């Protein structure tokens, strides 16, 4: 059974009781009211690891569409998921009635058709979900669907992906979307800042060296906070004294522009993704900090890297990037050390 399956606890408990009865015989049994009772506690306790569920949430109307892609901890209750959706869609602060519904689809033969007919009809039934239930109870495999109603608006929640999570993964994160409702706006950075919470943001930023923390505070790109959570900056690093000595000299640039370029590159590298993604993060960060080229245009990734060649050269020499890059686990240690500060 997969880690996301549903356990039949009653059947499992009954089977365990039968096996115990065969093994122990009458010595552990007590008679009460004409029935046999086992003195031992036969409760079966099962523990599953939480997973990250990527939801595609859509509101489709005749005149407009609004979409969000949201990653959540499947241990959240539906009441907590409601709060996440209100934030992601920037819904008005009013007490509108809301409910979640499980969608059950079954296929039946069309009316008046014989059993061998290929003419079939699909029947859809919706059952209201108690908001105290956990997401994992209903959205535990890809393409599972739950409906959400908020006031007069209807939303469809479809599981797009499921994968393991660790202690550093945020409880909820909006990873993209399009459109907005009248009177609201789609501001990804503001959404994730609210989902993360100011207390968590403050805690994560305390692990950063002051220059790196200043980059995030000046750019207002709090989307970096979940990334930094995932990096687990509190973890001990295992780097040689030689590498630590080299990292302690960074950044080597002397201008404000060079310093900002260096930290923008480091944050891009911390994404540990494809080159296009890392370049996009670097460019976005420099743009948010207000840097442009001589023609007033957005700086390219190559231009930004060129502003901090001395420092990126050091990073390459210790395996943080380039053709001689170290293994991912070692690169993470290098980036943790740089972001926390060495020396």
UniProtKB/TrEMBL annotation:
Gene3D superfamilies in the record: MM3350-like
Species: Corynebacterium casei LMG S-19264
Disordered as annotated region, ranges: 15-41, 109-128
Pfam family, one: PRiA4_ORF3
Protein name: Plasmid pRiA4b Orf3-like domain-containing protein
Location of the Plasmid pRiA4b Orf3-like domain: 58-182
InterPro entries xrefs: MM3350-like_sf, Plasmid_pRiA4b_Orf3-like
UniProt feature, compositional bias: Basic and acidic residues: 32-41
């Amino acid at each position: 059974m997969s880690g996301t399956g549903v356990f039949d606890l009653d059947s499992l408990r009954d089977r365990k009781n039968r096996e115990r009865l065969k093994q122990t015989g009458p010595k552990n049994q007590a008679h009460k009211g004409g029935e046999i009772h086992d003195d031992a506690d036969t409760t079966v306790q099962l523990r599953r690891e939480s997973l990250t569920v990527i939801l595609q949430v859509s509101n489709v109307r005749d005149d407009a569409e609004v979409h969000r892609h949201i990653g959540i901890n499947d241990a959240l209750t539906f009441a907590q998921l409601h709060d996440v959706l209100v934030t992601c869609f920037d819904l008005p602060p009013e007490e509108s009635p809301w409910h979640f519904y499980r969608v059950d689809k079954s296929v039946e033969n069309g009316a008046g058709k014989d059993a061998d007919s290929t003419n079939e009809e699909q029947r859809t039934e919706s059952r209201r979900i108690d908001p105290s239930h956990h997401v994992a109870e209903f959205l535990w495999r890809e393409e599972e669907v739950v409906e959400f109603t908020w006031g007069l608006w209807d939303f469809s929640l479809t599981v797009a992906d499921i994968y393991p999570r660790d202690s550093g993964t945020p409880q909820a994160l909006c990873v993209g979307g399009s459109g907005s409702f009248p009177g609201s706006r789609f501001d990804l950075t503001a959404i994730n800042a609210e989902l993360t919470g100011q207390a968590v943001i403050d805690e994560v930023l305390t692990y950063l060296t002051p220059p790196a923390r200043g980059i995030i505070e000046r750019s207002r790109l709090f989307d970096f906070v979940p990334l930094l959570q995932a990096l687990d900056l509190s973890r001990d690093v295992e780097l040689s004294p030689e590498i630590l000595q080299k990292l302690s000299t960074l950044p080597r640039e002397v201008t404000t522009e060079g310093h900002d370029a260096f930290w923008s590159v480091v944050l891009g590298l911390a994404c540990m993704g494809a080159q296009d993604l890392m370049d996009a993060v670097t460019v976005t960060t420099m743009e948010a900090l207000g840097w442009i080229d001589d023609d007033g245009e957005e700086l390219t990734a190559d231009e930004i890297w060129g502003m901090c060649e001395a420092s990126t050269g050091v990073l390459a020499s210790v395996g943080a990037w380039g053709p001689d890059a170290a293994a991912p686990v070692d690169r993470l240690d290098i980036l943790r050390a740089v972001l926390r500060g060495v020396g």
